[in-house]
Amino acid sequence: MSEHVTAAERLAGGHAHHFKDGDAEFQACKSGMWIFLVTEVLFFSGLFVMYAVLRVFNHDMMHEAHQLLNWKLGATNTVILICSSLSMAMAVTAAQTGRTKDCVRNLWITELFAVGFLCVKYVEYSHKIHEGILPGALWHYAEMSVAKAPLFISVYFVMTGIHALHVIVGMGVIYSLIRRAGRGDFGPNYFTPVEMTGLYWHFVDLVWIYLFPLLYLVS
Amino acid sequence: MTMYRLKRLSLFILVGIVSSVSLTAGGAHAATLPVAATDVARDWDSIYWFLMWVSAFFFVGIVVAMAIFAIKYRKGVNKRPKYLHGHTGIEVLWTIIPTIIVLWMFWWGWLVYKDMVHAPQDAMEIHVIGKQWQWQFVYNNGKSTVGDLYVPANKPVKLIMSSEDVLHSFFVPNFRVKQDVVPGMYTHVWFEAKIPGIHQIYCTEYCGGLHSGMLARMIVLTPEQWHNFQLGKEIDLKTLAPDPTFPGYETLNNVMMLDRQSKIAAAEAPKNTGGQLSLADKGKALMAAKGCIACHTTDGSKLVGPSYKGIYGADVKLADGRTVKADDNYIRESIENPTAKVVEGFPPSMPPYKGLMSEEEILSMIEFIKSLK
Amino acid sequence: MGQTAEKHGDNYINHSAGIKSWLLTLDHKRIGLMYFCTTMVFFLVGGIFALMMRMELFSPGMQYMTQDTFNKFFTYHGAIMVFMVIIPLIPAALGNLVLPMQLGAKDVAFPRWNLVSYYIYLGGALLAASTLFIKQVDTGWTFYTPYSIRSSTSATYVLLGAFTMGFSSILTGLNFIVTIHKLRAPGLTWDRLPLFLWALYATSVIQVLATPVLAITLLLLTLERTLGIGIFDPKLGGDPVLFQHFFWFYSHPAVYIMILPAMGVISEIIPAFSRKPIFGYKAIAAATFGIALVSFVVWGHHLFVSGQSELANFVFSLLTMFVAIPTGVKVFSWLGTLYKGSLRFDVPLLYAFGFLFVFTIGGLTGVFLAVVSVDVHLTDTYFVIAHFHYVMVGGTILAFLAGLHYWFPKFTGKMYHDGLAKVACWFVMIGFNVTFFPQFIVGALGMPRRYADYLPQFTEYNRLSTIGSWILGAGLFMVFINIARSLKSGKPAGDNPWGALTLEWQTPSPPPMENFKHDPVVTDGPYEYRGENVHWGMNA
């Protein structure tokens, strides 16, 4: 079917038949991606509302319970993700200007940061699971008996868990980009997937930048 | 179509408008709302009928316009449609007029609502506990009733309600009050009943299994009867007036509802059981009515308490390490005094039913448990 | 494909053969038809549940099933009809078929995502429906906590199914928004956009903005059931009413996902069969967006008796009133379009008249429920059931049937049997009103909803309602017999049987693979019935 456009055709300025030209297609993809990010914002906004409700009604508990989290590890992860955003942005520029090798290298660096982020997360999670600092009904941590503290931990696990899931999905997508970039699929005429993934990755970082102070730095 | 016929038609339509407005609003006046048994209910009725008349006016207007257009502007009659894109004046008008109307409706509704939710300071307080699938009422003198709420007439009463398990909703149509009953929080309704006698209470928030059987009776007593009730004297409910909305029908609580269902089932039961429910079936209905199956399953799965399935005749390990055989006496004891021998792995949370059930009822329950091999 | 195909040759139906060419198609028309068939299968299943419930309610007492079974029936009826039928019905089925054609586009912006969206919908629907065979769910389609946490049924899979279907809804909405923005034919300016597309646009905006909130809500409830996170569980310190807020933040706008496209269909049909421009084009388009906007701030009117604060009740009651105004504007504008028109009562217009009649009742009773004190008595009774069936069935389903008969000749090249369609329409109308009108009365008298058994004083109303359900069922059955029959032996319809002016009619029926033989150029508004256009064209 003529909907299918090969990589070679795209690099030569080809585009899907129902668009008037390649630029129109790129603009459509970009709009689509932004709308998708809006849905992501609303998805997370549900979690933020849940957090806000809990905090408004249980301010003292939140203050007590947040000390169960290790803010140093959280801050480390913040730095890691900001760096990964930078490398992702460099990968996008490289793809746009046709520097394939640069693009692949920066994508790998981004993957590496993501792995680092997940390792830190693993340390945090396993420590909590070991201590019994677990969501809701599973909680069996003896050293804190603040009422509803398990709810805070529920919120922590759900929010960071869903965020981590987004990181993992992003890693998968970036890996597919690495393979496609290595194959020479992208160039100045066609870099849509790299740019779209870049937008997604920045969004994931941004979510963490909100999560970190809200969860680790309750005052 | 001649002019004459058209005129006759419009006359016909006019008669149609008048009669249908009267039918939809006026005629409905008679029997489409429950009797208003409080002052607040009467206020409620005023705004309801105001809404009904306004709605009837718009509805009939729209339908009549449609009918006239359908006749007058049929393809065969009107061959030259008017080329028309709109009319700013009329569009502004049909935006502004409804806005004013609905804002008025809102404001009036709000005023009535404030009266509905704000109980007078001196209101008598009664506690309501909703649980699957019965209503329990606890009075300040320590007395407690299930399925029947006793209140004095012409005195404001405030109910403080909570739920033991899931959401319920307390609804008295004759008083126009309804309020969800939520576990973990207290909610309120208040009323001042003007009509002594019995009024129907429903649960209106879906609460599982026997939601539709979670009924209760609001028993509004005259000062003299209320005095007797407080002294602990038995009130003969047969002498009280039935629900004024449905005077020809019995007002039911949860147990009576279950009883009615089992009677219907019995009437339809095959002849070989002589039209009678078996003892085990009676026990089953009773277990549902008393809410036992909220905590005990019949299929072997664990809820708050142990399942009935296969327990009869089995050796049961108790929380204190002993083992007992679950025979008739053990089951009887577990109903009447459940904390005496608690099964291992379950909390001692069941309330005692000693003195609350007849010999025959206990027998039927044991028989039902026996039947669950 | 008979005469039509010979005349026009290649079209989207005969373009390629074989089951694979359908299952893997990227063509929006084929995907639309696949949505249509799937939703119809679920419509049948949901309808059977409804008929069985009405059967049980024919008499008080339990006749044919236990209370538990009844509770499962209304759960599946609700969940199937809402998530699997009405939400995708007009946007995904009719929308996919019509939207690119009315735009003069060859396809939607992202055809591949369009197909993915269909399979996500199918997968989610099958996952949810699979629970019909093991531990059927009894929570009600609203999944109110804490009952839905405690229910020992396979509610988790229905939750995950609805969660999955949400992504399909989001992708369809996203696709439509980008398509409308980027793929309009030359000359198709915003003020020439057909009102059906304005409606789909507003619907897509709601889908994109509200569905993610449902997704997170269902996910949290799933975690609540599997891990016991406690957010909605009062036993663990959580708040069950918070769930209702989350749930209705999506599910109230979802009501407008269901009704806005229906209004769009009516806005197409009324001018075409009145041979007049639509009355107040801009007002209707604005009202569409007005409703979409207001839909996000009125969810609390579902919680008037939930225990939420008095202030919240005040605000939500006031805001809900503003839904009535744009809705009224639309109804009045449709009447204005009929005024001094030249009405031809084909089946689509018959259904549109039916829509106006019942939707007015549905809308006006909505005002009752928006007034906070009046709602206290009426909420959770059959009055509410009657109200939303007047909107969902009387509104959405009737408009869908109107649209179905309107576009059937376009997408099949065949004409339905007119006589049978008219008889079916009357059956549907009469059956619908006999079914649901008595429910207003029985609800006002106090009969609560979701009752497997009821008190004997409500018997007459329930009997009438059950008899109505048979007439309605018969009417819908006739509609589908007619469709099946007309697919095989319908007369050739011609390219533009209604002489309509929107772009989908300016191409052969059925349309060719890429919709238009020559790229269309728009020079006028969609409803400019004047001069030559007033006549019905050669097919009339």
Describe the structure.
The complex is a heterotrimer of chains A (219), B (373) and C (540). Chain A is mostly helical and 219 residues long. Chain A has one domain: Cytochrome c oxidase, subunit III, four-helix bundle (Four Helix Bundle (Hemerythrin (Met), subunit A), Up-down Bundle), CATH 1.20.120. Chain A has helices spanning 7-11, 22-57, 59-65, 71-96, 100-131, 149-182, 192-216. Chain A starts with 6 loop residues before the first helix and ends with a helix. The mean pLDDT of chain A is 90. Chain B has eight helices and twelve strands. Chain B has helices at residues 3-29, 39-72, 88-117, 223-230, 254-268, 279-290, 328-336, 359-371; strands at 124-131, 134-138, 144-146, 148-152, 157-163, 168-172, 177-181, 187-191, 197-203, 216-221, 315-317, 323-325. In chain B, the strands form three sheets. Chain B has a five-stranded mixed sheet with strand order 3-2-1-5-8, with no helix packed on it. In chain B, strand 1 and strand 2 form a beta hairpin. In chain B, helix 6 crosses helix 8. The longest helix of chain B is centred in the N-terminal third of the chain and has 34 residues, at 39-72. The model of chain B is unreliable at 271-275 (pLDDT under 50). By secondary structure, chain C is mainly alpha-helical. The longest helix of chain C has 37 residues, at 67-103. Chain C is globular and about 65 Å long. Classes of the chains: A mainly alpha (219), B alpha+beta (373), C mainly alpha (540). Chains B and C meet through helix 2, helix 3, strand 7, strand 9 and helix 5 of B and helix 4, helix 9, helix 10, helix 11 and helix 12 of C.
